[in-house]
Design goal:
Low-confidence stretches: none
Number of domains: 2
Number of strands: 16
Strand order of the largest sheet: 3-4-2-1-7-9-10-8
Bound molecules: adenosine-5'-diphosphate, aspartic acid, magnesium ion
CATH class of the largest domain: Alpha Beta
Distance between the termini: 38 Å
Number of helices: 15
CATH architecture of the largest domain: 3-Layer(aba) Sandwich
Length: about 450
Amino acid sequence: MIVLKFGGSSVKNSNMIKRSLEIVKGVLDREPVMVSSAMGSVTDKLQEIAYTAGKGNSETAENIFNSITNLHLTAAEELLQGENLSHCRDSLLAILKELGSIIKGLVLLREWTPRSNDAVLSFGERLSTTLLYYRALDEGVNAEYIDAREIVKTDDSFSSARLLEKESYGKIKKTVRPSKGRLIITQGFIASTLNGITTTLGRGGSDYTATIVGAALGADEVQIWTDVNGIMTCDPRLVNKAKTLKEISYKEAQELAYFGARVIHPATIQPAIEKNIPVVVKNTQNPKAAGTRIISSETGKGVKAIAFKKGITVINVISSRMLLAFGFLKKIFEIFEKYKTSVDLISTSEVSVSITVDNTFSIKNITEELSLIGSVSVEEKNTIVSLVGLGVWKRPETLSLVFNALKTIPIRMVSLGSSDINLSFVVPDKRADETVLLLHNVFFSEDLENK
Ligand code: ADP
Ligand code: ASP
Ligand code: MG
């Protein structure tokens, strides 16, 4: 069997919904499970609803609610007719009624919590898959709709809930029974606790649902259908000369995702690794293009792609007491652990430590506690730029190419050698685009490729 995941842009309107269904209809003999995101930008709109409702701003929340309602009802009218249209409309309205009641409750309670936020965000996927299901029926496809919250179980870390693997795999195997000629449709991104409280896997998490379902069912392949031809040498929104990679290893793809390449969610690769399932990234608008295969084996050495993550904060701790003292770093990391803040890059000298974080939710508490250890300074608005590729830093010429190209860029931190597939450094946000373009030119111009 195979799993096909369609992102928000692949179901953003009735035309794209038709295209996505064409793609799955072409593989009905491969026992497909279709995992879908919300229609493009709907999750952002729901996010605004959750926030504004929680602040008591019912008018704004209601306006956005109305635009979501219109979007889905219009799509239903464009996609369906007769009984399927009326059943679909009933289902959409029932889901929207539930959302409307939640919004009213949040306005009254002035509640904006991670739990209520997840409850609101979950509606996008529920609505989009309802449209897909009825359109599939309308086209005569033998379709089945499964609510992902029944099969994907997590803990209650709302907004980026952790998978309960055993429970989820058990439920998926029991409930999801792919067969030839039949299409199973379910939602990405949404899940629930063992008590049935709705959770989400984190923004962009539908990719992760796809590999969870794929791993549980031992899929032959997981396909991620999106709006680019595959994983590219860089985000094509910034680098228009970016090229599509034919293949990339699990480890490299994981690293790229973690360091900002949004094309796949960072958690996506882990379930695929466990069951050795190839993940293929493909373009819904250009299905004939081969896409990128993410596989277990090595796919050649050298820089494969450049990722970047903006809006990073650097925290520096300087203390002469660090000199020759042991246990110093432990104390520092305990503070980050206490505030559940994960650290990306670290560089240390004899008397100082610099640490980057992208989650600044607890930064005030963290810096207060760090100042008991040494003097602390915080630098906001930085970007981590990462060159990713197997053995990336082992070639001496890589470093000279990088530093030569970036002669005029104030590089703030460098992390080299902690893994053999990543060379990362920190530059100010306002020089980030320039940095990435310079590097892309160096590593991916025709004559210097595969450095
Ligand atoms: P979807 O809605 O299908 O999940 P996303 O917007 O989450 O799509 O991811 C696709 C986007 O990822 C692309 O439009 C592109 O701008 C961005 N992206 C970032 N880095 C890369 C990369 N290295 N290769 C391809 N796309 C990338
Ligand atoms: N709809 C969710 C989001 O926008 C999940 C996803 O698209 O993967 O974050
Ligand atoms: Mg995505």
